[in-house]
Amino acid sequence: MMDYEYIKCRWDTLADDEPMLLFYEIDQSRNRLAVRVAEVFSGGKVRQVFGEGVGYDYGVTISTVEEINADPQFFAVKISRDEFEEAYGAALYSGDIDFHID
């Protein structure tokens, strides 16, 4: 049985060539391996990173939301599969890059 978690993560980076927003599809049954990732860059351009067994950062498993949020340069929330699919399938991201928990 597949046990997936979906995370949206803002990265407060100053580098123009780094993504500002990351969307993760995480297989929890496989040590939190990222199966698919959507990277959102300045201006909203989306790049899909995909493939069976692809771990974001080349083999590193994805931390929990709580662990990610312990680093002040990141802010992450759990999202629905539908929200992940919408971002992953887009050429341009139209959502809010500077999101917060209300």
Tell me about this structure:
There is one protein chain. The protein is an alpha+beta fold and 102 residues long. It has one domain (4-88). The chain is built from 3 helices and 5 strands. A 5-stranded antiparallel beta sheet has the order 4-3-2-1-5. It starts with a strand and ends in a 14-residue tail after the last helix.
* Main pleated sheet: 5 strands, antiparallel
Strand order of the largest sheet: 4-3-2-1-5
Task: Pick out the low-confidence regions.
Answer: 54-58
| Helical residue percent band | 10-25%
Rg, Å, rounded:
13 Å
User: Using DSSP, what is the number of strands?
Assistant: 5
Number of helices: 3
SSE layout and pairing:
Elements: E1 4-11, E2 21-27, E3 33-40, E4 46-50, H1 56-59, H2 65-69, E5 74-78, H3 81-88
Compact overview of the structure:
The chain is of the alpha+beta class and 102 residues long.
List its traits.
single chain, 102 residues, alpha+beta, 3 helices, 5 strands, 17% helix
